[in-house]
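Working notes for the structural subgroup meeting. M.R. asked for a predicted model of this chain before we commit to crystallization trials. I am recording the input and output together here so anyone reviewing the notebook later can reproduce the run.

Input as submitted:
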Amino acid sequence: MATIDDDYLDNLVQRFKGFKSPNDTQKLIILLGEKDNRSDDDNRKLSVLLKAEKKADQLFKARADARRLIDAEKGKQRKARTRRMMILASAVESAVEQDDEVKSLMLRVMRKVDDGNYISDRDKEVVKGKLDAFLDTSLAVSNAL
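Returned structure, recorded in token form:
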């Protein structure tokens, strides 16, 4: 006679009953799980179905764990990239404020960025004020020189 984990079976039956449209395997587990007098053949079938369901649960959990690991790694990479971008932007801002040659080079770069299609229209709205302010102040400085 096949041994059956009754607690696990009861949990599965309750879970599958809550499904809107259980598949055939789930329907069979519900049917056999609620049967009062199961034969040895019924118990063997149910045992095989429960083993398969446990393996499916393990697979689902393993996939979820793998997804969490991948997402965490991607998050670390995004954070590191953002940090690098912030450090570089800060360094460029400092260099522009302290060195007129760097400011002149940056003005040329910013004009090229503004005139070219390097920034999408949606993103231009976000940086427009900063870009315009930089170009205006740089023009005033370059005209004074």
